[in-house]
Specification:
The protein has helices spanning about 15-25, 45-60, 75, 100-105, and strands at about 5-15, 40, 65-70, 80-85, 90, 95, 105-115. It has about 120 residues and is of the alpha+beta class.
């Protein structure tokens, strides 16, 4: 019997355009970064993701969503946790060129857990 790999839960605050692209992937992958987006930033806690979706995405995109997904822990460990402000403002910085490989290590589906308008 093979066991499932250990996973790490990540959250991603996102706007409606990116969310539509995730939906088109069958809830399995994040879309490629735009040229001005060299880094993909999933975050390590839900509260931080809520703050970004509610306070930034709504203002800039009219809506903000918090997604939750699982990534194989062994793979995620290659990206050191970055503290982008306060003690709980923790992110992974995934270079855009690694995103296809990152997506291949997502376990299960990306799910929307909060919506703000």
């Amino acid at each position: 019997m093979t066991s499932s790999p250990a996973t790490t839960t990540l959250w991603r605050p996102t706007g409606p355009v990116e969310l539509d692209l995730v939906r088109e992937s069958g809830w399995r992958a994040w879309p490629p970064r735009l040229p001005e987006q060299p880094i993909f930033y999933p975050v390590l806690n839900e509260d931080y993701a809520i703050r970004i979706a509610r306070d930034w995405n709504v203002k800039h995109d009219g809506a903000g969503f918090v997604t939750r997904f699982e990534v194989e822990s062994e793979f995620a460990a290659r990206y050191p946790v970055q503290q982008a402000g306060g003690e709980t403002i923790l992110e992974l910085w995934v270079p855009a060129e690694d995103l296809d490989e990152f997506n291949a290590h997502i376990v299960g589906e990306i799910e929307v857990v909060h919506e703000f308008r």
